[in-house]
Recover the amino acids of this structure.
């Protein structure tokens, strides 16, 4: 098997899900056989928004021939990763380079995990929601938009409300009685808004 590890491993983080890794080629005489390529082992150490350590699954990408760089796609935003690089010949892999730590920046969150509308009265509805399964950063707020729908399915004026990130419920007041409303709800990090969840509910007709 090869004798030495690739040197001077550098990671350039391109965005919240993509990084590029560079390394110096090993001297050919240390390969001790036919150079097949380089393998990059990388794994997520922890999510910076959750601090939950779980079973670490190592991923491996193989770059054929005498390449000295490769792309690592599909990373999770706002996470800490480690990687190392090994050279491969027909017999197997050489030793691993020292582990390199890198962080991915924040991304936009996934949609809130649920939106539930309860307690309809003549002029109010209660909204409850769950935070996104993948915050992908630090949540800074939620945005609620809603509008009435009339009997011919036309949409009325859209109202928008910003809600602090630590809230999980809201009572909407001053609504019209016996009216169907459509709700659009999403979460924000400093990078931007995540995908929205939609729901409909009706205020009651009379007490």
């Amino acid at each position: 098997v090869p004798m030495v590890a690739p040197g001077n491993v550098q990671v350039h983080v391109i965005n919240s899900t993509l990084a590029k890794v560079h390394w110096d080629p090993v001297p050919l005489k240390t390969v001790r056989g036919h150079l097949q390529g380089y393998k990059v082992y990388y794994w997520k150490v922890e999510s910076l928004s959750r601090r939950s350590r779980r079973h670490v699954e190592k991923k491996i990408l193989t770059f054929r021939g005498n390449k000295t760089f490769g792309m690592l796609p599909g990373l999770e935003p706002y996470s800490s990763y480690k990687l190392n690089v090994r050279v491969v010949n027909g017999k197997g892999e050489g030793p691993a380079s020292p582990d390199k730590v890198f962080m991915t920046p924040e991304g936009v969150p996934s949609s809130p995990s649920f939106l539930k509308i309860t307690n309809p009265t003549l002029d109010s509805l209660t909204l409850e929601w769950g935070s996104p399964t993948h915050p992908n950063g630090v949540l800074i707020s939620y945005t609620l938009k809603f509008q009435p729908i009339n009997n011919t399915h036309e949409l009325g004026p859209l109202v928008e409300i910003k809600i602090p990130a630590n809230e999980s419920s809201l009572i909407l007041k001053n609504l019209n009685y016996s009216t169907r409303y459509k709700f659009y709800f999403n979460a924000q990090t400093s990078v931007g808004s995540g995908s929205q969840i939609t729901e409909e509910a009706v205020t009651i007709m009379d007490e």
Q: What stands out?
A: The chain has no helices and 15 strands. Residues 112-202 form a domain with the Immunoglobulin-like fold (CATH 2.60.40.10).
